[in-house]
Amino acid sequence: MELRQLKYFVTVAEELHFGRAAERLHIVQPAVSQQVRRLERELGVTLFTRTTRSVVLTEAGQRFLPEARAVLAAARRAEDSVVTFRPSEALVRLGTSEGLGDRLDGLLRAFARLCPSASLELLHAPTLDRLQRVRDGSLDATIVRGSWPASGLDLTPLWMDEVWVALPASHELASSATVSFASLASLPARLSPPSRNQPLYDLVVSSCREAGFEPLLGKEFTTAQDTLGTLGFGRPHWTVFYRAHANLLPVPGVVFRPLRDPAPRMQTYLATPSDRRLTPELAALIEAARETAGD
Questions:
Q1: pTM, to two decimals
Q2: In the list 32, 33, 247, 270, which could disulfide-bond 156, CB 3.0-4.6 Å?
């Protein structure tokens, strides 16, 4: 049994889709499938029930998942104990969300000013993974958008992220400076499913209902590149991005517009462990985050 196999298994279990798991792992799908099947042969059990439409954990897979995660967490801790050891320099490991843009730049500048003797290491991973890493100590803190299970964590409110709509540039709504939610009622919405981003899904659906309609759900949001590619040149539909992320994504055939009636916003937090001593470096990071929130 290899750590690589456990990592592939956990990623597939979280995505319940071999293609999306391969995208997260930055490898081709056949390699993921091959290693998972090899792991199943070594264990002598079937971990997933596979059909052409779905991938579901078996009972054996459900039992194996928490143990696999524990092994990977232990491996990360073992690696961190030597890789990040810097006797002359403190290191703060910060988990980040996609598309933070100028907000992250401001936080990094403030931290460098408040704690010039420390270095900051950034890590991007799925939200639940980052929160668990803060709990187990392989991350010192993480930025997180929206409300997630927070046992064992302290959440410092930071800024509010505006949520914008992404539309085909050729659509009549693209000519408006802002787009009302009600005007989207007849168009399919391509959203991340609740299993991947419950807070954003709930915010968008509740905004649609406030505007008087149930969203017409189309294909799921996969990656920013693939989703925006089909949005710009496929059949008319819409999706959402945070303003800071939208500003980083000039895509041919796509426009980003603020929303109104309602104008949704998502609270962003800094999650830190509640059961460990607050180091001077982590205190400086929290102060930097608070300064950035006030910008």
A1: 0.64
A2: 270
Per-residue pLDDT of the chain (295 residues; tens, 9 = 90+): 888 899 999 999 999 999 889 888 878 888 889 999 999 999 999 999 998 888 999 999 999 999 999 999 998 888 777 655 544 568 899 999 887 877 888 888 999 999 988 888 999 888 989 999 999 889 999 999 998 888 888 888 888 889 999 999 999 999 999 999 999 999 999 999 998 889 999 999 999 999 999 999 988 888 888 888 888 777 889 999 998 888 777 778 899 999 999 999 999 999 998 877 778 888 898 888 888 776 5
Q: Helix 3-15 to helix 59-83 angle, to the nearest 10 degrees?
A: 120
CB-CB contact of 39 with 5 (8 Å): yes
- Go through the domains of the chain in sequence order and give each one's CATH number: 3-82 (1.10.10.10), 89-295 (3.40.190.290)
266: nearest Cα among 187, 192, 169, 177: 192
The set of residues, in sequence order, having a beta carbon less than 8 Å from that of 125 and lying 6+ positions away, is 95, 133
Helix H or strand E encompassing 257: strand 254-260
* Alpha carbons 127 and 148: distance in angstroms, whole number: 8
